[in-house]
Amino acid sequence: MELFVVLTSFLALAIGTLAIGQPASLTFSETAGVLKLGGTGSSPTIVIDAKDWAGVTRTANDLANDFGLVTGTKGKVSSSTSGLGDVPVVIAGTVGNSPLIDSLISAGKFDVSAIKGKWESFMSQLVSNPIDGITSALVLAGSDKRGTIYALYDISEQIGVSPWYWWADVPPKKKTAIYALNSTKTQGPPSVKYRGIFINDEQPALTNWVSSNYGGKYDSRFHAKVFELLLRLRANYFWPAMWNSKFYVDDSKDGPLAGEMGIVMGTSHTEPMARADKEKVKPWDWKSNQSNLKKYMQEGATRAKNWETLWTMGMRGDGDTGSPTLDATQLVDVMNYQQSVLKSTIGTVDPSKAPQMWCVYKEVGGYYQKGMKVPEEITILWSDDNSGNVQRLPIAVETSRVGNSGVYYHFDYVGDPRNYKWINTIQLSKTWQQMHLAHQKNATQIWIVNVGDLKPLEIPISHFLDMAYDMSKFMTADSTDPWLKAWATREFGSEVATGTVEAMATYGKLIVRRKYELLNLTPFLYSTTNYDEAANVLGEWESLQNKTQTLYDALDADTQVAFFEMVLHPIMAGRIVQQVYINAARNKAYAAQKRMSANKLADDVKAAYAQDAVIQKRYHSLLNGKWNHMMDQIHFGYNNWQDPASNSMPSVSTIGTTAPSGGILGISVQGSTASTPGDAAPALLALDPYTPENRSIELYARGSGTVDYTITPSAPYITVTPSTGTLSYPSGTSDIRALISVDWSSAPNGSSTASISIKPKTGGTETKLSLPLNNVHVPGDYKGYVESNGAVAIETSHYTSLVSGGSSSRVEVIPNYGRTDSGITFMPVTAGTQTVSSAPKAMYSFYAFSSVSSAKVSVYMPPSFNVDPGNPFKYAIALDDATPTTVAPVPSSTLGAMPSDWKDSVQNGARISTTTLGKVEPGAHKLTVSLLEPGTTIHRILVDLGGVKSSYLGPPESSKVGM
Ligand SMILES: *[C@@H]1O[C@H](CO)[C@@H](O)[C@H](O)[C@H]1NC(C)=O
Ligand SMILES: *[C@@H]1O[C@H](CO)[C@@H](O)[C@H](O)[C@H]1NC(C)=O
Ligand SMILES: *[C@@H]1O[C@H](CO)[C@@H](O)[C@H](O)[C@H]1NC(C)=O
Ligand SMILES: *[C@@H]1O[C@H](CO)[C@@H](O)[C@H](O)[C@H]1NC(C)=O
């Protein structure tokens, strides 16, 4: 499978300089018309008018420093254009705020009409003789303060300083020469107006780290680092830590610093009027303590009026819970009061001067649903379900609101079904699917994401903010991997970029199956009996880790640190947790079979559990302990939503070494828990030429001692490998998996039953396992999936054909999406609701050998919400020419409540909807899936012709022929 379908918009960048997704204005080799900006022994002077914003000068100093990081020669910052001699010159400034830039404009040397008056936009261009005595300069002009700041950091990124150079230790890329191209570059305005992060649930990891680095408080030194990161990532908005912090109180320099640097300060959804939760007056009750609450809100406005603030409006109850006394009418009173405060304090509620938001989170959604009138100027911030599924997006009547709307999203959460705060558990393609939909439905005023401790979420944060900055690079369903490739190229270099895409795309699929904290739910998710599921999943993790280790090994020592933090660590640490739980489940299953390797699995679980601490220590020891505490989060042994007090290993069983009366040699087969002799000999599962999984026999020691065995098939066309061997315990080989293969050209046609006998060489009884064979064949010209053992498992990206629908609607594949492979979705999402006949369709051919009077089909989807309740997600499915069955899979729910299947589908990373398909006769069939509503997305389809066995992910994908 081509994971890395070649990209459109991102590829270009990988060649020249690297500013992800944005055009290049620099180059590293001399070509006609370029201006040398720096190199070994030389660097530019960056001229900033003294009247420009302080934050612009501050950024220019960062850029001057960044030249030093890549060339060894630091640049200089000057407020004067005189006396520069013949050093390279960069002139940067804000239109209307920099007399220097304004003079170039009025002299006709720089035309900024493309950006003038726009939000956060900039232009860059080479200008000849900008000022007397300067032959040529690179001129950067911002439409506003952040426009200029982004222009300067854009140069940093292009010369080779990653936004993550400090927070994730990405080494600056050394350069011997840097040139500015003689081209004009225009960038902005961003797709989403306010784009930011929320540092939240920051205990224990980040808080412990802050304690040891900043003396216990989230102070202005800490915030300067965060703000710089945000600006380098082209973000502009921040909700500060609130678990036990008070941004404005803890350090009085915090607010002015945000103002100077150019960060728009917000507070979380539950902290109105720029005040921290920990400052709340008690009782926090509008009804009984209104005058004090009003005073408190007024003080917040007065305190924060001197810098850019995005005001959080409304209120919830104390401690981020519902208020028992508040109702929808009073909530509107609260908002009206808050707006009156803004009017009297800053003179306006016009959102271009006083942006405001109200977050539809939990119970307040119910008020809104009942028709609450939210003042027009207030941006409605729609929330996800805390698990990455956006609950609601603007519908037609809401898109014309002055304040528009936005999305509050989560990459980290404390709450139901269980906290996920440890390491990165985000599938990027899923974030794309949700945020692309939000963007297309015009929820574009604010995007804010809860990033927990910030640190282990570098990749999802970059992805989210890059989409928010320029969604035009993410308009197709396959845009995630090209973005990841451009990102990996910037951070680690092009040699490992493709491998990093493969690693993170695979990681996304493995992790979306279930969060680490939920792996100990009972019964264990992965089947230890059917489809070798548990062992195969562990194999996927192992193979992912091995490949990622190979990438790591190829990197230089400096880059290895960054790669470890962002890519290798989550894969290693995640694999260990999987190994602990999967092998604990296998241990129990083996112990029940008296399989001595249960004891080895018990040891393996203990060793893996101990390894978890070793990996944590490795992370904490990086760079002499720079990130000590960042991995303090408990991640084993949850039994409710909240963290347990400490990690704990799942229990394991050990068994005694006395063999059962049936003898040392034990035999088991797929699909059965029996251990024979002792239990009745199970039949092997049927085998046919299209069976996608290996068919095997497990032979193992059931006590201490040694046993030689021979395996003899009943017919010459059956081979079993190995056919003889020795099992012994405690030393030697205690378990053998013997693989069965059949030469179908010699086997009898149609159904037959062979057998395989297994005999200990000396003593003991012979075991005979029957082996049903189905020597069946599809016609030579058939193309499509083929049934085996009563199941057809389809990965939706492997369609036979696609048909476009009305309004240019079509089916697009979302690569590396969902739990097993990829997904399909309805694009463009602006095409609107379709009928079964006008809908875009995907067709899947399958060939059945079974005859079934009532087959069932299960459709696997993400756990999404109906973001437009009046037009729920829908698909229709039909077998051959039958009338399609239309399914609206998401149970309806009111805003603020969850659909009835929410917990299961969120825990499982999938919602499975099963419908009856009708009668299926042997022969070729066609399954047609119509996507009726934008946003409808499907991962996988399973046709049950009577043979599907229970498992978590479903049977492995069926064999395909001719495709
Ligand atoms: C840049 O290109 C323009 C025309 O494309 C030309 O007039 C100008 O002289 C060039 N500037 C430099 C510094 O080469
Ligand atoms: C209202 O809040 C203030 C400040 O916390 C408190 O001192 C006062 O007792 C409260 N008033 C009432 C009526 O509860
Ligand atoms: C979104 O905004 C664009 C531009 O203002 C407009 O053309 C489009 O109709 C809006 N879409 C929706 C779904 O309201
Ligand atoms: C991973 O590497 C280890 C150590 O080299 C090896 O034993 C194991 O078989 C590999 N596993 C997979 C699935 O590639």
TrEMBL record:
The keyword Cell membrane does not apply. It holds the Pfam family Glyco_hydro_115. Residues 784-957 form the Gylcosyl hydrolase 115 C-terminal domain. InterPro entries: GH115 (IPR031924), GH115_C (IPR041437), GH115_sf (IPR042301), Hex-like_dom2 (IPR029018). Residues 1-19 form the signal peptide. One of its GO terms (molecular function) is hydrolase activity. Gene3D superfamilies: 1.20.58.2150, 2.60.120.1620, Chitobiase/beta-hexosaminidase domain 2-like, Glycosyl hydrolase family 115. Keywords: Hydrolase, Signal. The keyword Signal applies. Transmembrane segments: none annotated. It comes from the Eukaryota. This is Glycoside hydrolase family 115 protein. It comes from Lophiostoma macrostomum CBS 122681. The lineage of its organism: Eukaryota, Fungi, Dikarya, Ascomycota, Pezizomycotina.
